Amino acid sequence: xxxxxxxxxxxxxxxxxxxxxxxxxxxxxxxxxxxxxxxxxxxxxxxxxxxxxxxxxxxxxxxxxxxxxxxxxxxxxxxxxxxxxxxxxxxxxxxxxxxxxxxxxxxxxxxxxxxxxxxxxxxxxxxxxxxxxxxxxxx
Length: 139
Fold this sequence. Notes:
By secondary structure, the protein is an all-alpha fold. The protein is built from eight helices and no strands.
């Protein structure tokens, strides 16, 4: 996964692939994914990142952004601050093969989830599954 990229670019620009307009009978969610792919990635909000990541769109770039956001907000969660469970869920439920291609990023996410204290049992189960699927797991 790229460490450094132009965050002012859209996913379409980063991938070098412009999708055609979505079919007229498509769902609102699919239309939204098409729209989000055209926006500069630096402008995407956490819930928009979660939507794209949940659809496996732009993972080489968006997982990096997601882990940065999660890392930056994890320490504040213990103090009663905001933490985005939806973004966390989107990231930790990607296939193990995705994380195998980015071991440093996976390790950073592992360290991030280790500091979380107030997580629902459902998300905790997904965290445990993510951790157990990591290569060289010692969780």
